[in-house]
Automatic annotation (TrEMBL):
Protein origin, superkingdom: Bacteria
Signal peptide segment: 1-22
Protein known as: DUF799 domain-containing protein
Pfam (any one): GNA1162-like
Lineage: Bacteria, Pseudomonadati, Pseudomonadota, Gammaproteobacteria, Alteromonadales
Key words of the record: Signal
InterPro entries: GNA1162-like
Length: 222
């Protein structure tokens, strides 16, 4: 009996830690009620030091939104429209009243994004390119927040780090990886993973399936 009790306690602790690691599912009630057909993707606010970050992200976000079943406005057309109206900074675009966005583009909803992290870092024996993005989907008809989430991706997920390498070998490998990932802008590839993880309808807490999807209105993997 004395042995069973500690094992029971350990089991409960492991069960609790397992539950804590799973993110709770979103409440999609407002999203389902609004049922947007078109999404206007606004230029993301870049909080990273990398000037290429917004371009890399914008090149990747349209695919998961379109595949989810929504009409998305062409990136170049949207950017040109804002430039023609004197708006060249993402912060200024995000400050445009929703009624004005609705009037100009006729979109049902707008996606506001913020790049929290983008770039390659080198820490002693590790080099890693990380992209972190947060997003909020807003109904342009009444300003209701329909959905919001945050996702990250890193280059270390795509390579196997061996524990058998020598310390010197790991130092050299980290330095090489940093140079390679910086010169080739590995962030572009990592942005694709982050965007898919954040927006895809088949991901946990992603967008709902849109009207152009056979799974319209359904919630993806929970």
């Amino acid at each position: 009996m004395s042995r069973i009790k500690p094992l029971l306690v350990l089991g409960l602790v492991l069960l609790a830690s397992g539950c804590a690691s799973t993110r709770p599912s979103h409440d999609y009630t407002a999203f389902q009620n609004a049922a947007p057909h078109s999404i206007l993707v606004l230029p993301p606010i870049n909080r990273s030091p990398e000037i290429v970050a917004p371009y890399a992200l914008m090149a990747q976000v349209m695919k998961p939104i379109s595949e989810a079943g929504y009409y998305t406005f062409p990136v170049t057309l949207v950017a040109q429209t804002f430039r023609n109206n004197g708006l060249t900074v993402a912060q200024d675009v995000h400050a445009v009243p929703i009624q004005k966005l609705r009037e100009i583009f006729g979109a049902d909803a707008a996606l506001y994004m913020s790049i929290e992290n983008y770039g390659t870092s080198y820490v002693v024996i590790a080099s890693d390119t990380t992209v972190t993005v947060s997003a909020t989907l807003v109904d342009l008809r009444d300003g209701t927040v329909l959905w919001q989430d945050r996702a990250s991706a890193s280059s270390s997920e795509q390579r196997g780090d061996s524990n058998e390498s020598s310390f010197l070998g790991m130092l050299v490998e980290a330095a090489v990886n940093q140079v390679f990932e910086t010169l080739t802008d590995r962030g572009f590839e990592v942005s694709e993973v982050a965007a898919d993880r954040l927006l895809s309808a088949d991901k946990h807490n992603g967008l709902l399936y849109g009207p152009r999807s056979p799974k319209y209105g359904q919630v993806g993997s929970q």
